[in-house]
Amino acid sequence: MNQRKIIIVQYDPKYAEQTVKMWRISKERAIGQKESHNLESHIYFLNHILPQQFQVDLALMEEKVIGMIAYNEKEINQLYVHVDYQGIGIGQLLLNKIKAQSSGKLRLYTFEVNKNAQQFYEKNGFKVMGRGCENEENLPDIQYEWNME
């Protein structure tokens, strides 16, 4: 892990633009598809829609958003790490925090094309529960579930 301090904080709208830009680039790299929503509507989603059902936390390094996770006690809705900071444990840091405060069971979906995410979740004890294609990207996805042993 980088020598500079990484902190996890509850989402604050002052980080909206940074968060959404990081999210969009990370997602595009992961699935090979540009975001269909414009920046403003994506920021609106982050600030007003997502928080209705999910807590949003950010991983920050020196006030720079390098990761985000949206979750509740049973589900992870979003987990993205800045493309320049992938593979150094930020996703693990976020996931460990959520697992510790979960109900003991978590579910999530990831895109079938996102092999890195699949490896990450499977390494962390998530099991495939189903497959489908019910997302606005119209890409095949995989439903995962983790149970506390």
User: What is the CATH topology descriptor?
Assistant: Aminopeptidase
Biggest β-sheet, characterized?
4 strands, antiparallel
Shape: globular
- Strands side by side in the biggest sheet: 1-2-3-4
**Any idea what the radius of gyration is?**
15 Å
The CATH C-level name is Alpha Beta
What distance lies between the first and last C-alpha atoms, to the nearest angstrom?
27 Å
Can you describe this structure in just a few lines?
With 149 residues, this protein is of the alpha+beta class. The chain contains 4 helices and 7 strands.
Describe, in plain words, how this protein is organized in 3D.
Helix 1 crosses helix 2. This protein has one domain: 3-Layer(aba) Sandwich (Aminopeptidase). 32% of the residues lie in helices and 31% in strands. With 149 residues, it is α+β, with helices and mostly antiparallel strands. The strands form two sheets. The protein has a four-stranded antiparallel sheet with strand order 1-2-3-4, with helices on both faces. Strands 5-7-6 form a three-stranded antiparallel sheet, covered by helices on one side. InterPro entries: Acyl_CoA_acyltransferase (IPR016181), GNAT_dom (IPR000182), MshD_Acetyltransferase (IPR050276).
